[in-house]
Amino acid sequence: MSASDESGTTHFGYREVPRGQKQKLVGEVFSSVAGRYDLMNDLMSLGIHRVWKRYFVATAQVKRGDRVLDLAGGTGDIAALLRDRVGESGELVLGDINGQMLRVGRDRMTDRGQVRGFRYVQCNAETLPFPDASFDLVTIGFGLRNVTDKDAALREMLRVLKVGGQARVLEFSEVRADWFKPLYDFHSFNVLPRLGRLFAGDADSYRYLAESIRRHPAQDELRTMMEAAGFARARYRNLSGGIVAIHDGWKA
């Protein structure tokens, strides 16, 4: 057990807060940025997040007729791509702990005429409201770092997977090239909050999001966490030099 667990605190960006408060604080961040979530991702990734998401879905273990759970589904970008993969005979459950984000995603899918085959569930990744062995694939994109108890979320992802099913995590990670780290830090902590204030009127939320990336487990640590949760063949693949990584695990 870590020191933060023993003291009843956890990190919210670079701040230590009571564990029970993190969910509320994260909720306030995403309620603030829900209507500008795509803008947020564009600012954080210089627009490359759209390429990462397409690759994330294109290389997933999923086929027509599958049942898929997309956690931290936000405004539905990944869910929409997955819907094309499962086809009319499949089902896509978009889950998010934040009701405002979920409404944005539902409204966006409706505006696109994508209604059939979607379900929307407000849920906490740490305690999923689904039976064991419910899904062929579980994904979480840019959401795991905001979960208070990541180990519990990983165990829940494994629980709701069918045997042979795949879990995929797409998340900002640890940049590998030493020469690039100062440039990345400057963008994260100097440019990003200013862009957030300019375009979204909210510098603090963008500063938290940059800090949360630095507090998220690095690639090898997260792979070890997935193994400890019970996933078989846990592995990762870096994209864009480790700015993000895709982690995979299977239910044996």
From TrEMBL:
Gene3D superfamilies: Vaccinia Virus protein VP39. It is an enzyme of class 2 (transferase). GO terms for biological process: methylation. S-adenosyl-L-methionine binds at residues 75, 96, 124-125. Its EC number is 2.1.1.163, 2.1.1.201. Pathway: Quinol/quinone metabolism; menaquinone biosynthesis; menaquinol from 1,4-dihydroxy-2-naphthoate: step 2/2; Cofactor biosynthesis; ubiquinone biosynthesis. GO terms for molecular function: 2-methoxy-6-polyprenyl-1,4-benzoquinol methyltransferase activity; demethylmenaquinone methyltransferase activity. It catalyses: a 2-methoxy-6-(all-trans-polyprenyl)benzene-1,4-diol + S-adenosyl-L-methionine = a 5-methoxy-2-methyl-3-(all-trans-polyprenyl)benzene-1,4-diol + S-adenosyl-L-homocysteine + H(+); a 2-demethylmenaquinol + S-adenosyl-L-methionine = a menaquinol + S-adenosyl-L-homocysteine + H(+). SUPFAM superfamilies: S-adenosyl-L-methionine-dependent methyltransferases. Keywords: Menaquinone biosynthesis, Methyltransferase, S-adenosyl-L-methionine, Transferase, Ubiquinone biosynthesis. Methyltransferase required for the conversion of demethylmenaquinol (DMKH2) to menaquinol (MKH2) and the conversion of 2-polyprenyl-6-methoxy-1,4-benzoquinol (DDMQH2) to 2-polyprenyl-3-methyl-6-methoxy-1,4-benzoquinol (DMQH2). PANTHER family: 2-METHOXY-6-POLYPRENYL-1,4-BENZOQUINOL METHYLASE, MITOCHONDRIAL, METHYLTRANSFERASE. Belongs to the class I-like SAM-binding methyltransferase superfamily. MenG/UbiE family. This is Ubiquinone/menaquinone biosynthesis C-methyltransferase UbiE.
